[in-house]
Amino acid sequence: MSEGITYAAAGVDTAAGDRAVELMKSAVARTHGPQVLGGVGGFAGLFDVSMLKAYDRPLLASSTDGVGTKVAIAQALDIHDTIGFDLVGMVVDDIVVCGAEPLVMTDYIATGKVVPERIADIVRGIAAACEVAGTALVGGETAEHPGLLAPDEYDVAGAAVGVVEAADLLGPEKVQDGDVVIALASSGLHSNGYSLVRAVISHAGWTLDRHVEEFGRTLGEELLEPTRVYAADCLALARDAGAQVHAYSHVTGGGLAANLARVLPQGLSATVDRGSWTVPAVFDVVRGLGQVPWSDLENTLNLGVGMVAVVGADGADAALARLAQLGVPAWTLGTVSVDDGATDAGIVRGAKGVDGGAVRLHGEYRA
């Protein structure tokens, strides 16, 4: 009598999943403070929120996201311990935009075949980024999908929950005529627009091991540069009364103008000076290789601005000084004023379903 089909024969190795958990446990545990109960391995992560009793009106903020096709670069280079920064940055930095402190995060990894060392590397990166953000990694799931994904393929996603006191909520309601727009530098491409970037380098015939003079390193190293995680720094800035933070905008898919417009109220417009910063080399290389129009770059990539703070006019100097103390490169992008209703090509109004204010990009980028 022939043997029956087992789960392992079908392509799922539960023992490999258990080994991966053992390899990642210490990294996950480092994100746990006394509020985390139960440690690693429970069906649900437990987080003590007794501190919410001290809030007058606590508001929970939640976000979920993935890394997108940047995972293809990690897979091609067989480097997996940095992609977690991209995941955490995409999630927690959406939460901090409203002034919320990201408390807990969970992750989900789908793969064609569980290789314990690879899964552990991914989670170690997620945990390291959670440490930077001050967020507890309280749970996760690894799913083996043979036949749906190739053995070396995987995708990652995550979700987080944070809290903000209602009186401290940041957003369009606080933005005023005369506010100053401040840029917080990105670390590179972050985790958006990689379908465009990969198409450009494929068309150019460039390989990931190619040394690129403008980068001072290989193409692959530049493309895999981890996303800067802003959460802790943005919270520190928002808690500095002198900085007068009114709103943040996380510059992800859609680019600077569209995302900034989401946090401006109707009737106000932000004017952004393209000449206020030098676009990092990676964006100019992508533009030149693919003859990508500037308009498409602006609507797809961050061009060197990963986060934006909108602050009171009297708080701009204090905000820039505080960001310098925190080690975050920052500069003044422009100002907020009453919207004149113009509709020329350089103006963006609202985005992603938000009927917000307007953003005008003017001038030329520095060479």
Polypeptide structure, described:
By secondary structure, this protein is an alpha+beta fold. The protein has 2 domains: 12-165, PurM-like, N-terminal domain (60s Ribosomal Protein L30, Chain: A, 2-Layer Sandwich), CATH 3.30.1330; 172-362, PurM-like C-terminal domain (Phosphoribosyl-aminoimidazole Synthetase, Chain A, domain 2). The protein is 31% helix and 26% strand. The protein has helices at 14-29, 70-77, 83-95, 116-133, 194-204, 219-223, 231-238, 255-261, 281-290, 294-298, 316-326, and strands spanning 36-37, 46-47, 58-66, 101-111, 136-144, 154-165, 180-185, 211-212, 217-218, 245-250, 268-273, 305-311, 330-338, 347-351, 354-362. The strands form 4 sheets. The chain has a 7-stranded mixed β-sheet with strand order 10-12-7-13-11-15-14, sandwiched between helices. Strand 1 and strand 2 (46-47) form a beta hairpin.
Furnish the topology, listing elements before pairings.
Layout: H1 14-29, E1 36-37, E2 46-47, E3 58-66, H2 70-77, H3 83-95, E4 101-111, H4 116-133, E5 136-144, E6 154-165, E7 180-185, H5 194-204, E8 211-212, E9 217-218, H6 219-223, H7 231-238, E10 245-250, H8 255-261, E11 268-273, H9 281-290, H10 294-298, E12 305-311, H11 316-326, E13 330-338, E14 347-351, E15 354-362
Parallel strand pairs: 4-5, 11-15
Antiparallel strand pairs: 1-2, 3-6, 4-6, 7-12, 7-13, 8-9, 10-12, 11-13, 14-15
